[in-house]
Design goal:
The complex is a heterodimer of chains A (793) and B (289). Chain A is built from 19 helices and 32 strands. Chain A is of the alpha+beta class. Chain A folds into three domains: 152 residues, Aldehyde Oxidoreductase, domain 4 (2-Layer Sandwich); 187 residues, Aldehyde Oxidoreductase, domain 3 (Alpha-Beta Complex), CATH 3.90.1170; 324 residues, Aldehyde Oxidoreductase, domain 4, CATH 3.30.365. In chain A, helix 17 crosses helix 18. The termini of chain A are far apart. With 289 residues, chain B is α+β, with helices and mostly antiparallel strands. Chain B has three domains: 47 residues, Uridine Diphospho-n-acetylenolpyruvylglucosamine Reductase, domain 2 (2-Layer Sandwich), CATH 3.30.43.10; 111 residues, Uridine Diphospho-n-acetylenolpyruvylglucosamine Reductase, domain 3, CATH 3.30.465.10; 106 residues, 2-Layer Sandwich (Enolase-like, domain 1). Chain B has ten helices and 14 strands. A five-stranded antiparallel β-sheet of chain B has the order 4-5-10-6-7. Chain B has a four-stranded antiparallel β-sheet with strand order 11-12-13-14, with helices on both faces. Chain B has a three-stranded parallel β-sheet with strand order 1-3-2, covered by helices on one side. The N and C termini of chain B lie far apart (50 Å). Classes of the chains: A alpha+beta (793), B alpha+beta (289). The interface between A and B is medium-sized, with 28 and 23 residues. Chain B: Keywords: FAD, Flavoprotein, Oxidoreductase. Chain B: It holds the Pfam family FAD_binding_5. Chain B: One of its GO terms (molecular function) is oxidoreductase activity. Chain A: GO terms for molecular function: anaerobic carbon-monoxide dehydrogenase activity; copper ion binding; iron ion binding; molybdenum ion binding. Chain A: Pfam families: Ald_Xan_dh_C, MoCoBD_1, MoCoBD_2.
């Protein structure tokens, strides 16, 4: 009898998450749950100032406290050549400050003690004398001719600029603007925000002097990269470094970079010869680890009066904080910002990007953004709406006439990407139908009678996922492939390991489903293991929605390799030649005689007990997958909102999400990802940001100021699906982890702007807090969250 | 969380608790719900030598309307109890409206009404409610009990006239002469966020006529704002568009907002005025029971 794929937990089964068995019982094993014998505890003293020269550090009172084992300063690290470490963007970052502090929250000293209370108390005893320097909190200040240089540690550094970078065809784009009937312009700021994993960053470093082995338990989304980096920084032989990531309590990109705390804990363990645990507190996490966004845009669009887009210009200015520590493909200085307008058929485009250092925390690409695709899509959709308004054209119609048509795929975008497939109009139509777009004008008029303002906002997004292909994507020279290793036991049960690392995202469930789909082994019979660099094959990790596009593909490929060997075993068992063997899910049979067959489990047993002469025993393999192209999911999000004009408070009346992420492995998990992503999108649009005051004090360094929406205010989301299989991915999947966070924010913002359209307002910077909406409404003017940056370019 | 080191005592009687506070000479702190104290310990904004946990003292967990119509709220009454109390929802509309807006649902199961008043956070909902309702606290110290009127209680942010060796054991809301009406509105960016502006309105009505009115504000000044003077616009009159507008303007004039990331001073003042109007308008159109 043919196997029922859904019943065995294969492709398309909304299988319950196997990892939840331990999570909902409180039996997850997070890094703080790991306790090693004789373990010490580390606490970091952070800078209270944004920019200051360190005049002196007196640690004597801390050393004097009973239970204190080690007090580390930047000077002590410098003596070991560890005061600075490389970042993932070819810059350097201070591990512990030696000369200056460059942002509030920067690591200054570390105390290692018998328990965390003593370590914290001892930090309070350290006296640091600072000479205050003028802080720089935005790119305008950074670019000023008389600006203090933040990175005076770097030879050859000019001013506070990190980079100038451009892409696209400038002269052709200039020409398009000359020929345009209408030019639409908009300026805006995508404010700084921050991931909020429930578990902060942390590690336990355990250096064993007798064996020379360094084991680090760490909350990393990319443990294999960490091993390579530790080998470089700590100058330890790579075979003696083992990175173990236990369960991860959320990552969202926050746990990709290597932070000073990890390096200090490693040195602490080497010096004390004891395991050293460092667990960051929430404020430490919010104020010092990888943030997202903080980019200004000047966008221009050239159009014919019939609505056809002729060209696009984008000028971005990004604020990178004190160190250029973006975790992104090395070739692209502003990530994949040039993925903007990939869904639109645009003849030409040009982008000029400038990055600046400021006295703010370093990072820049964390928070579910796939290397700044979040900004790219937000900018794109805000520009599209402004352009439609400038033309006086219906916003849906304007998108429709400019979309890349289904049959145009694969389509070369104006910035040079190659899309793979998509049905953009179909997604838009489903969304418009669901939101009741046709009746909206009547609805709006009715609400106006009640004194309420209604708005409808559309956002579409297409996201290049799966970095990468090795031609273009590398991090510090390491090509961005991924891996899977599959071992079938003699009973037909299996162990699967990959180079990716789930972070609460359901890998243990979905990876088994891919194997079930390829081999017919029930998903419940497959154990998935990730995150131990001594056992898992090398991979680049989990971020940028790349697990399914890359590691997921490697899993399908390794299963096919295993199946190829199983076929030989089947031929042997059935005593026919391999060419006469047919495959159906979970079973080989003799062509023309379907009754006569053996199961994959029979083949597994034979691999250990009855292999043909000359065949290597065992049934296992490994696959490294280098994707031929990026995958291109698409989504259309539509929000309908209502504004209370007396307060500026806006409520979401309806939200429709149409996602095409290709073939869905586990629809339930996909829906969960979309719901979570839309919640984060709503947060950024409505309430969430990190800003800094004039002195460089962070506003948003704790959860009183940095707001996460609760179930109370989060709107309901209606989900719809379209499936366009990815033509080059072995199972047709495209990835979905970030789509909703990427595409969601512009739907909310566009909806509010639509409601305010008649008031002469073109832009309110996120978050669209009631006071900002009220200000725009009453003044008829745009509201900027930060001083607008004007680029001379 | 890693607070500074402190001693912890959990006395079984009020007398014992007061003794501990007295011995602490100002370095001991009462723990009721811990709504604000625990986060402050965590952030090391507070580092008392001693915590006196009053949760094991019996007899402090009551909501009681006396025969004279006055309302008595014991020191261990949680916000959630007020939110779910049928008596409160029938007889004390200002408190009934404020209860579901205090903090978030999880905090409401622990935080206490009296503790919130004693914390004297300028953003506190209950201090504003108490001022609008002209309430008082019953406090007990080594020398016995005394009453402190709410208008004399708050000195400034986190500062009150409570002595270090006293515990507030009860909040008392006086009985209305007619029927208690009113409401509470708060603008917050998210559940549990500190208020951008909050408005407490207490009305004492006889039919359509206002016998008494109380107003207080949170979030728009360095301490809870007493705007009870605005009652002059309403007492002896009916709630009409004109009297409502006049009262709302008087209340808004009392606000002392600061411009910050929650909004400009003018915006917050506008919200106060809007909310006063909304509460009064809602009460003017309601049928009086």
């Amino acid at each position: 009898m043919k196997l029922d794929e859904v019943k065995i937990g294969g492709m398309g089964a909304s299988r319950r998450r196997v990892e939840d068995n331990r999570f909902i019982r409180g039996k997850g094993n997070y890094v703080d749950d790991v306790v090693l014998p004789g373990m010490l505890h580390m606490e970091i003293l952070r800078s209270p100032l944004a920019h200051a020269r360190i005049k002196s550090i007196d640690t004597s009172a801390a050393w004097d406290m009973p239970g204190v084992r080690l007090v580390l300063t930047g000077e002590m690290l410098a003596a070991r050549n560890l005061a600075w470490m490389p970042t993932l963007s070819y810059d350097t970052q201070a591990v512990l400050a030696t000369d200056k502090v460059r942002f509030q929250g920067q690591e200054v000293c570390a105390v290692i003690a018998d328990d965390p209370y003593i370590a914290k108390d001892a930090c309070g005893k350290i006296v640091v004398e600072y000479e205050v320097l003028p802080p720089i909190v935005n790119p305008v200040q950074a670019a000023a001719a008389d600006a203090v240089q933040i990175r005076d540690d770097k030879a050859g550094q000019v001013g506070n600029k990190v980079f100038d970078w451009e892409i696209g065809d400038k002269s052709r784009t200039d020409k398009a603007f000359e020929d345009a009937d209408v030019v639409s312009k908009i300026e805006l700021h995508y404010p700084r925000t921050h991931p909020s994993p429930m578990e902060t960053c942390g590690s336990i470093a355990d250096y064993d002097r007798a064996t020379g082995k360094l084991t680090v338990y760490m909350t990393s989304q990319a443990p294999h990269i960490v091993r390579a980096a530790v080998a470089m920084v700590a100058e330890l032989p790579e075979q003696n470094i083992r990175i173990i990531t236990p369960d991860i309590g959320g990552g969202f990109g926050n746990k990709v970079p290597i932070y000073p705390g990890y390096v200090i804990a490693i040195l602490g363990s080497i010096l004390t010869e004891k395991p050293v645990k460092w667990i960051e507190d929430k404020t430490g996490n919010l104020t010092s680890t990888g943030f997202g966004r903080d980019v200004y845009l000047k966008g221009e669009m050239a159009m014919r009066k019939d609505g056809k887009i002729l060209g696009v210009r984008m000028n971005t200015i990004s604020d990178h904080g004190a160190f250029f520590a973006d975790a992104q493909p090395s070739k692209f200085k502003i990530g994949l910002m040039h993925s903007a307008f990939a869904a639109y058929d645009i003849p030409t485009a040009h982008m000029f990007a400038t990055g600046y250092y400021t006295n703010k925390a370093p990072g820049g690409v964390a928070y579910r953004c796939s290397f700044r695709v979040t900004e790219a899509m937000f900018f794109q959709e805000r520009m599209v709406q402004a352009a439609a308004d400038d033309l006086g054209m219906d916003q849906a119609e304007f998108r429709r006439i400019n979309f890349v048509k289904d049959e145009q795929h694969p389509h070369r975008t104006a910035f040079g990407f190659l899309t793979d497939s998509g049905q953009y109009e179909k997604c838009l139509d489903i969304g418009l139908e669901a939101i009741g777009y046709k009746n909206f004008a009547a609805e709006k008029a009715e609400a106006a009678k009640r004194g309420r303002l209604l708005g409808i906002g559309i956002s579409t997004m297409t996201e290049p996922l799966g970095a990468g292909n090795s031609r273009e994507y590398d991090i510090l020279g390491i090509k961005m492939f991924d891996s899977a290793e599959l071992r079938i036991h003699m009973s037909g049960k299996a162990l699967l390991r990959t180079g990716s690392r789930g972070q609460g995202t359901g890998h243990e469930t979905t990876w088994a489903q891919i194997v079930a789909h390829e081999l017919g082994i029930p998903a419940d019979d497959i154990l998935v293991e990730e995150g131990d660099t001594d056992t898992a094959p090398f991979g680049m990790g989990t971020y940028a929605s790349r697990s399914t596009p890359v590691a997921g593909a490697a899993i399908a490929m390794v299963a096919r390799k295993v199946r190829a060997k199983a076929r030989k075993l089947a031929a042997h068992l059935l005593e026919v030649s391999e060419e006469d063997i047919e495959w159906e899910l979970g079973r080989f049979y003799v062509r023309g005689n379907q009754e006569r067959g053996v199961t994959i489990q029979d083949c597994a047993m034979a691999a250990y007990s009855n292999m043909p002469d000359g065949m290597e025993p065992g049934l296992e393999n490994v696959a490294y997958y280098d994707p031929p192209n990026l995958t291109w999911p698409f989504a259309c999000y539509i929000a309908k909102i209502e504004i209370d004009p007396e307060t500026g408070v806006w409520d979401v009346l309806q939200f429709v999400a149409v996602d095409d992420c290709g073939v869905r492995i586990n629809p339930m998990i996909v829906e969960g990802q979309i719901m979570g992503g839309l919640t984060e999108a709503y947060a950024m649009a409505n309430m969430q940001y990190q800003t800094y005051d004039e002195e460089g004090n962070i506003i948003g360094g704790n959860y009183m100021d940095f707001l996460l929406p609760t179930a109370w205010e989060t709107p309901g989301f209606e989900l719809y699906e379209v499936v366009t299989p990815c033509p080059h991915h072995p199972i047709g999947a495209k990835g979905v982890g970030e789509c909703a966070t990427v595409g969601g924010p512009a739907a909310f913002v566009n909806a509010v702007m639509d409601a305010l359209k008649d008031k002469g307002v073109r832009n309110i910077d996120m978050p669209l807090m009631p006071n900002r909406v009220y200000e725009a409404l009453t003044t008829g003017k745009d509201v900027y969250g930060m001083p607008p940056v004007r680029s001379g370019n | 969380m890693y607070p500074s080191r402190f001693k912890y005592e959990s006395p079984k009687t009020l007398e014992e608790a007061i003794k501990l506070l007295d011995a602490g000479k100002g370095e001991a702190k009462v723990l009721a719900g811990g709504q604000s104290l625990v986060p402050m310990l965590k952030l090391r904004f507070a580092f008392p030598d001693q915590i006196v946990d009053i949760n094991n003292i019996p007899g402090l967990d009551y909501i009681r309307f006396d025969a004279d119509g006055s309302l008595h709220i014991g020191a261990l009454v949680r916000h959630e109890h007020l939110e779910k109390s049928v008596e409160i929802s029938k007889r004390q509309p200002t408190i009934a409206a404020a209860a579901p807006l205090v903090a978030d649902p999880i905090v409401r199961t622990r935080g206490t009404f009296v503790g919130s008043v004693c914390h004297a956070d300028p953003q506190g909902d209950w201090a504003a409610t108490m001022i609008a309702l002209n309430g008082h606290l019953v406090v007990q110290g080594p020398k016995g009990k005394r009453n402190i009127a709410m208008k004399d209680f708050v000195l400034g942010p986190y500062a009150t006239t409570l002595n270090y060796n006293e515990i507030a054991i009860e909040a008392v809301i006086p009985a209305p002469k007619g029927v208690a009406r009113g409401g509470y509105l708060k603008l917050e960016r998210r559940v549990g966020d500190f208020a951008t502006a909050s408005v407490a309105v207490a009305l004492d009505m006889n039919g359509d006529t206002v016998l008494g009115a109380g107003f207080a504000l949170a979030g728009v000044g360095g301490k809870t704002i007493d705007a009870n003077d605005a009652a002059s616009a309403l007492v002896g009159q009916k709630l009409t568009e004109a009297t409502i507008a006049k009262a709302a303007a008087l209340v808004a004039a009392k606000a002392e907002p600061r411009t910050d990331h929650r909004g400009s001073a003018e915006y917050k003042r506008h919200i106060v005025e809007t909310f006063v109007k909304r509460i009064l308008t809602a009460n003017s159109t309601q049928k009086v029971a």
